[in-house]
Amino acid sequence: MAPELRERLRGTVRWEAGLVLALMAVIVFGVNASSQFLTSSNLFYGSLSIGEVAIMTLPLTLIIVTGEIDLSVASILGMSSALLGDLVTRGWSVPAAIAAVLVVGAAAGFLNGFLVTRVGLPSLAVTIGTLTLYRGIAVIILGPSTISDFPAKYTKIGVTPLPHTGGYLSYSVGIFIVLAIVFAIVLHATPFGRSLFVMGANEEAARFAGIRVKRTKLLLFVLSGVVCALAGILYTFRLSTAVQDNGLGLELNVVTIVLLGGISIFGGRGTIVGVVLAIAVFAGLQNALFLTDFEQRAMGVVTGTLLLLSVLIPNGSDFVRRGREFLRRRQLRSHEISA
User: Fold this and answer.
1) What's the rounded Cα separation, in Å, for the pair 242 and 235?
2) By the 8 A CB rule, do 232 and 100 touch?
3) Which residues on adjacent β-strands are paired with residue 147?
4) Minimal CA–CA distance to 231: which of 102, 104, 103?
5) What pLDDT, in 10s, does the model give residues 99-154?
6) Phi, psi of 242 (to 5 degrees)
7) What is the DSSP letter of 268?
8) What domains does the chain contain, in order, with CATH numbers?
9) How far apart are CA 21 and CA 256, in angstroms?
10) What is residue 122's predicted lDDT score, i.e. its pLDDT?
């Protein structure tokens, strides 16, 4: 195993161990903050608030591993929610509307991927643009309207727990668990997943190795669009409401969780396990603060702090490691000269 790869693996394991400790600290804090923290009802409602965000972290994880980013995830959710409500009010059956929304989500992801991989634009700039574009489409679709006329058999999945889970898990979290297992297998146990790490570590080397970089990245953006559309459908059913600003601002939570999970913003490093742990830490901290009557308008401060720490800490450790390596080489050179 190459020394650089070995160091990356050690860094990932250390980060995940740190997340386990952070999760334990959050649990202790939550239990001390409120006796309701570990009750089944609180865990269920806490899972409701994080379910759709957790689902959107999965495709974004793969995209960031390749060295790209997608900031339009929450806007695709909002556009999908608006479209679902509009189609249902026009008389479409819910299954047909869901199918159409997923196709539109795929098209939105395809536009992102096409502009990045075929036109050659940076993904940061592209998805900042489509973040606004897709949110604007949601406004055009619904305007100031609020649509709440959804069949009860669909909306109940957002407010009732999964059967046989003891009342702890929501449907959205159940779907996330299934998808997380699939994404983990794909990323960590298949040649396709290994190719994503190679692309993130060195895109030029990936091309020389025969990896079809552009096609793979385009596929990931399409996948992101579909999964975010699914999250938009679940979000709509949970609230029993479609409005043009559904999911507004959730992209910050999604990015924060992915980076907090140890996915390197520069690509080539991270695990699905780390992201799952980060979801638990983020959701637990958010819920514990809520139970302490923490000012919810200040949650952005907490999210922003976590985002900064998740970028600064791993890159700070890399800087220290490179500094030590530089000093070691300098000392060796000095010994060679003196000899």
Assistant:
1) 9
2) no
3) 242
4) 102
5) 999 999 999 999 999 999 999 999 999 999 999 999 999 999 998 889 998 998 89
6) -115, 120
7) S
8) 3-298 (1.10.3470)
9) 18
10) 96
